[in-house]
Amino acid sequence: MSRDAPTDPRTLPRDAVRRALDAQRAYERRRQTLLGKGAERLTEPVGGLFARAVPPALVRMGLRAADRAAGLTLPAEITSHDINDPDACEAAARRVQAWAVGTNAATGGAAGWFGAAGLTADIPATIALAARNVRATGAAWGFAADSEAERAFRLMVLELASTHAEKTRRETLGALDGMARVLETPAGRMMVDKGGEWVTEKVIERVLRQMGVSLGSRKAAQVVPVIGGAVAAVVNASFQTDVSRAARYSYRLRWLMSRNLLPAPEPAATTDTEAGA
């Protein structure tokens, strides 16, 4: 775990730390991927209806199963680098993104040939890959523990990746930054762990709403056989890119906090786009 590493900023590469801070600011100003925007714009007329057709139970079951499975399938090379080097952590996290984007584009392209029938299989696959994407990115930045607190944080990362409305995105950023601050203290981690599944369930409810809308809006055009294959490949790639960006921001934030390089934002300041910068 990264919190066991030296916290003296003087022991860390200055240029790499600056790049990490710049990346945080860039993400806070960033919006949804252009591919994601384009796909949602094309499917907007039916996206809302389709989102309501995505069974919440399917998403819930997929999230739980995928998170458990992800912990058993993380490659050793994700954690073989020096976690005190933010450039090495970033490089490992970007390898995770490349794998997730390529794999999910391929599964979406194959499933899209079968229209609505293929979509039934593609949604659980997309959720599973997103969960593994987040967990592997966390491991790349030195956060590989598995506890109720960490599970709740991983779910909040997925919520951030699925949130695109400006006001809601700022609120989600603030909530995630607040959770990161809580998890940087033993008392905070104990508090969240004692909340146990109750805390995780509360986060799952929010994630279900966000992922249902996001995946539903993006995937509405996938119900058209054959043509849906091309749409699904693009949509899945853009979704995993959004997940990877959210995960890198979230775990980079914790990496910086754990080394006293970034003050945790106070709740009152989290609506500002420079919060955490």
Our measurement of the CA-to-CA distance between the termini, rounded to an integer number of angstroms, reads 23 Å
Count the E strands.
0
- Range of helix content: over 70%
Number of helical segments with 4 or more residues? 9
Class by SSE composition = mainly alpha
**What letter string, H or E per element, gives the SSE order?**
HHHHHHHHH
Give the DSSP E fraction (strand runs of 2 or more residues): under 5%
> Any idea what the shape is?
globular
Commentary on this structure:
There is one protein chain. With 277 residues, the chain is mainly alpha-helical. The chain has nine helices and no strands. Helix 6 crosses helix 9 and helix 7 crosses helix 9.
Task: Give the SSE map.
Elements: H1 14-29, H2 34-53, H3 56-70, H4 86-112, H5 115-140, H6 148-162, H7 166-183, H8 186-219, H9 227-258
Helix pairs in contact: 1-9, 2-8, 2-9, 3-5, 3-8, 4-5, 4-9, 5-6, 5-9, 6-7, 6-8, 6-9, 7-9
